[in-house]
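Bumping my old thread because nobody answered last time. Still need a sequence for this structure:
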């Protein structure tokens, strides 16, 4: 029943962290929040299927490879791990991290970026609880490389919004060094050169792309262009049902994200076209996960940015109309009900709660 204590603590700490935006002395709560989530991810990641293969790979590397100038780059391809992740593994070895310490280092970076981004936007507590209850914390232990790439993308959003294309491009290249699928983020580079704010044509373009994904979801349209992904041999199974365990989205998530996409396309695209584009992209991935279940794993690249932006868009100012207040309040109520459903299904009524059911020991933090 440790999850009851953890969730209660997370609610309290995440609420206190809101004050860190304007009061520096409250930043300690944000630090505590990052450490708690990172502990859950790093030490509790042992329950994840892929986590074991990452641990085995990390343990197989030896410092002697570095001392002999014989870093085994071929292992990158044999194990389907990109060069950035391989070098990160060697860095962990250089500073004598054990397997738990290695995962904790990654979790601190990833969740440090995520939490700092989340608290730049309104309704941050709701965002944190969504990410925890929706399983993002547990999935971090499974999709380690993709979450590193997602953190880099989340950090790069400020460059995308400021139209600093070169810095954004460098971030995408760095993200791709950890997971090649990050190259899809190059789709947003043109937004650094095109003025799409208050442009009706851009709104209709996003609607059209979203509509195509709906047709694909309903089986009314096939997308053979996706087969070009097979040029990346390591990712050609994204177009199949291979290894899609746990990657299919529930009907509830499909409904929520399609509703979110329609809402921001109707209300936010004029003033926030870039963030709207990112949320729509995640919805497209969600819809395509019906005919192509394995493609669902791409959602982690966008999730923190999309959810933070969406909940921020629901924030009500005193100057807002009664209609917007009622709409925003109603949508937040639906999400709170959804979170309560997840809490009930995955924890209260579940005799086999995964969260921290298996953990690494503190003795595995370092390996001297």
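Sorry it took so long. Here it is:
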């Amino acid at each position: 029943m440790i999850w009851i204590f953890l969730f209660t603590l997370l609610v309290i700490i995440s609420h206190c962290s809101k004050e860190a935006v304007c009061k520096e002395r409250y930043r300690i709560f944000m630090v505590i929040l990052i450490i708690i989530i990172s502990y859950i991810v790093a030490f509790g990641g042992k329950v994840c299927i892929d986590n074991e293969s990452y641990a085995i790979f990390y343990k197989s590397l030896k410092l002697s490879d570095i001392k002999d100038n014989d870093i085994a780059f071929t292992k990158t391809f044999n194990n389907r791990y990109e060069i950035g992740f391989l070098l990160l593994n060697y860095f962990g070895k250089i500073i004598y991290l054990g397997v738990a310490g290695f995962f904790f280092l990654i979790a601190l970076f990833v969740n440090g970026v995520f939490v700092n981004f989340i608290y730049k936007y309104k309704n941050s507590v709701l965002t944190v609880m969504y990410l925890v209850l929706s399983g993002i914390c547990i999935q971090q232990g499974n999709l380690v490389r993709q979450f590193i790439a997602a953190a880099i993308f989340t950090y790069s959003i400020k460059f995308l919004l400021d139209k600093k294309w070169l810095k954004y491009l460098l971030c995408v290249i760095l993200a791709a060094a950890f997971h090649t699928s990050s190259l899809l983020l190059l789709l947003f580079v043109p937004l650094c050169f095109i003025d799409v704010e208050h442009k009706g044509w851009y709104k209709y373009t996003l609607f059209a792309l979203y509509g195509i994904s709906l047709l694909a979801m309903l089986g009314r349209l096939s997308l053979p262009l996706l087969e070009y992904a097979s040029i990346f041999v390591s990712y050609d199974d994204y177009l199949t049902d291979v290894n899609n365990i746990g990657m299919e989205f529930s009907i509830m998530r499909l409904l929520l994200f399609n509703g979110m996409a329609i809402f921001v396309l109707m209300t936010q695209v004029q003033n926030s076209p870039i963030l709207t584009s990112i949320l729509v992209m995640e919805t497209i991935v969600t819809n395509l996960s019906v005919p192509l279940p394995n493609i669902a794993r791409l959602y982690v690249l966008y999730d923190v940015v999309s959810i933070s932006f969406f909940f921020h868009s629901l924030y009500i100012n005193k100057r807002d109309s009664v209609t917007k207040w009622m709409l925003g309040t109603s949508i937040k109520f639906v999400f709170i009900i959804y979170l309560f459903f997840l809490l009930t299904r995955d924890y209260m009524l579940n005799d086999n709660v995964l969260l921290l059911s298996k953990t690494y020991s503190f003795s595995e933090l370092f390996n001297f």
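The CA atoms of residues 62 and 93 lie 7 Å apart. Let me know if any region looks off to you.
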